[in-house]
Amino acid sequence: MIKDITTIIFGGFTGNCYLLETDIGFVIIDTGRKSVRSKLEQELVIAGCQPENLDLIILTHGDFDHTGNCVYLREKYDTKIAMHRYDSDMVEYGDMFRNKKTGNWIIKKMINVFFNIAKFKPDYMIDEKSDLSGYGLDAEVIHLPGHSKGSIGILTASGDLFCGDLFTNTKKPEPNSMIDDLDEFNESIDKIKGFEIKIVYPGHGQPFPMNSYIE
User: Fold this and answer.
1) 140-153: buried (b, 16+ CB within 10 Å) or exposed (e) per residue?
2) Helix, strand, coil tally for the chain in percent (to 5)
3) Hey, which end of the chain has fewer CB within 10 Å, N or C?
4) Residues 157 and 194: beta-carbon distance below 8 Å
5) 54-63 pLDDT per residue, tens
6) Cβ-contact 125, 88 below 8 angstroms
7) Which CATH class for the 2-214 domain?
């Protein structure tokens, strides 16, 4: 059962982080870029998250602005990292375009030079069959490809959807403009309409009620 949700919004091109307090500890969804590490740790301290109670890091996808603090948190907090297998190559090779159709070698080189993307191997691969109850989460994994092959959402029993980069809400709730596979992306948008979703927690921007997007 989720007792509290701490929304950590950094703004700009840095992905949001969401800290979920459960009956048994904490789970963090996405970790932002390396540049926000100090602020992220401050938020963890305020929430009471410590090395002995951070049970899991869940990545909604493999982009560096969501994975930047994974290795650091795993080592300091003695925790594990979970993500979908289709995006695992992105983090294992330190290449956010590894499984994408878009991007060229110049952009790849620039990103690697300027952002020094860390390479790491996830501890767990999760998909729609995964059981998260062992981490105190009454929630399910939803595969939502389109932004990347292995993009996922985490939907709680209470109707909270942590959607990664499926949606943004920097100006208004809308689908993310960075789309790798338009057909898969549209299918993912249609897919979530079949679930009972109350609040959407996007990868960038403020959370918003699902009905405000549908309307």
Assistant:
1) bbbbbbbbbbbbbb
2) 30, 25, 45
3) C
4) no
5) 999 999 999 9
6) yes
7) alpha beta
Distances (CA, A) of 132 to 22, 69, 102, 212: 12, 22, 32, 28
DSSP letters along 111-146, please?
HHHHH-------SEE--TT---GGGT--EEEEE-TT
Burial 88-118 (b: 16+ CB within 10 A, else e): bebbeebbbbbbbeeeeeeeeeebeeebebe
Q: Quick check: pTM over 0.90? A: yes
Single out the residue of 177, 160, 159 nearest to residue 168, CA to CA: 177
Nearest to 39 by CA among 75, 2, 14: 14
Question: Tokens at residue 132, please?
Answer: 């998260």
Examine the pLDDT at 204 and tell me if it is beyond 70: yes
Tokens 């952002």 correspond to what residue? Answer: 115
Q: Give burial (CB, 10 Å; 0-12/13-18/19+) of 130.
A: middle
